[in-house]
């Protein structure tokens, strides 16, 4: 058998994997597209994405490190508003960590063709739990804001910290109930295990189910946030009409924070939905260098671009979300400012000590 790519203008090292993929009339185009896929995966899906997720992980850990001590010093009423803030932060840390492990460690050093089903299953399920619990945390924060503004008596007298703890735990339990079966089947599309899910029949169905569930989760979150945003805007308008400027100013900051969250969720939903829609019906193999994938390399280019952009947007949102919380929350902002000031003092002392050592070492 001759070289399948002998007539191609450009040649690539990956050609050796596809010499037997002769069921095509355009091998040169496909090998070029496949080389583009490999390059995109390296640049976008590894270097850029891994850097951003690592940064997101560090920022969210720092944010949690600030929030937890502040939480225990808060009054009983104030704690009610921060339970889902901390819950959201924990979900963000988990999301950044699992995506970092999945994309930057497992895919690279433990590829599906040589790895254990359970190794991938644990990480994928944890990633799903992070995603759905994060959505639930956004919903919880919005609902508490709605109750606190429009039903302050109920919020103050009837809604206890224990009730909100129960809601937060229920959010995680619901995320687990959704994530475990879905993650088990998602893993089966990558690696054979207790569940058999081959690429031609089972995998497209799993992709469709995942798309529907993710779409419902995003839709519910967006609709609830829009409803609360509209109610809050109307309440601010009413407060201004009766001359309650202090109240309207406080609520204005809350509305900006909610508006940022809503914008972020909409952007993420689009970034998540577009590649997911491309994946519907895709009969690709988990192992990249197969003939089945080679024959649809042109389609894989589009999917790789969109999935990489999705990951980058997710990472950026996970970075900006705690930063937005710092900007819109005076207590957290004061704590961050205190840390910055202390760092400047330590840095000045360090420079002073370095200058002093250099002056001592100068010849007399």
UniProtKB/TrEMBL annotation:
PROSITE patterns named among the record's database cross-references: G_PROTEIN_RECEP_F1_2
Membrane topology of this protein: Multi-pass membrane protein
Gene3D superfamilies: Rhodopsin 7-helix transmembrane proteins
One GO CC term, this protein: plasma membrane
This protein's UniProt keywords: Cell membrane, G-protein coupled receptor, Membrane, Receptor, Transducer, Transmembrane, Transmembrane helix
Tagged with keyword Glycoprotein: no
G-protein coupled receptors family 1 profile domain: residues covered: 59-325
Transmembrane segments: 46-72, 84-109, 129-152, 164-185, 205-237, 258-280, 300-320
Subcellular localization: Cell membrane
Origin superkingdom: Eukaryota
UniProt keyword Cell membrane, yes or no: yes
InterPro entries: GPCR_Rhodpsn_7TM, Put_GPCR_Chromadorea
GO molecular function annotations of the record: G protein-coupled receptor activity
Name of the protein described by the UniProt record: G-protein coupled receptors family 1 profile domain-containing protein
Species lineage: Eukaryota, Metazoa, Ecdysozoa, Nematoda, Chromadorea
């Amino acid at each position: 058998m001759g070289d399948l790519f002998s007539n191609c203008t450009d040649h690539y090292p990956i050609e050796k994997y596809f010499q037997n993929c002769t069921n095509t009339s355009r091998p040169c185009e496909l090998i070029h597209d496949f080389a583009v896929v490999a390059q995109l995966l390296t640049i976008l899906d590894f270097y850029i994405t891994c850097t951003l997720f690592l940064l997101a992980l560090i920022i969210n850990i720092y944010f949690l490190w600030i929030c937890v001590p502040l939480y225990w010093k808060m009054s009983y009423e104030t704690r009610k508003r921060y339970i889902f803030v901390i819950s959201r932060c924990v979900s963000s840390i988990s999301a950044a960590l699992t995506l970092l492990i999945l994309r930057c460690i497992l895919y690279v050093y433990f590829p599906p063709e040589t790895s254990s089903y359970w190794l991938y299953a644990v990480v994928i399920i944890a990633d799903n739990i992070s995603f759905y619990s994060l959505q639930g945390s956004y919903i919880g924060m919005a609902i508490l804001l709605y109750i606190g503004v429009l039903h302050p008596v109920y919020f103050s007298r009837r809604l206890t910290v224990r009730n909100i703890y129960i809601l937060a735990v229920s959010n995680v339990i619901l995320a687990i109930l959704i994530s475990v079966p879905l993650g088990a089947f998602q893993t089966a599309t990558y690696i054979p295990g207790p569940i058999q899910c081959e690429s031609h029949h089972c995998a497209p169905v799993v992709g469709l189910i995942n798309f529907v569930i993710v779409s419902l989760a995003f839709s519910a979150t967006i609709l609830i946030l829009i409803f609360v945003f509209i109610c809050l805007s109307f309440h601010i308008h009413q407060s201004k009409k009766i001359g309650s400027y202090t109240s309207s100013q406080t609520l204005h900051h809350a509305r900006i924070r909610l508006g940022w969250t809503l914008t972020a969720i909409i952007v993420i939903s689009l970034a998540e939905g577009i590649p997911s829609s491309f994946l519907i019906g895709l009969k690709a193999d988990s192992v990249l260098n197969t003939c089945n994938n080679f024959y649809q390399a042109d389609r894989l280019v589009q999917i790789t671009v969109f999935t990489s952009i999705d990951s980058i947007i997710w990472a950026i949102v996970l970075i900006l979300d705690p930063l937005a919380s710092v900007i819109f929350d005076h207590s957290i902002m004061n704590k961050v400012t205190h840390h910055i000031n202390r760092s400047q003092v330590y840095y000045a002392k360090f420079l002073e000590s370095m200058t002093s050592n250099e002056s001592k070492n100068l010849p007399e």
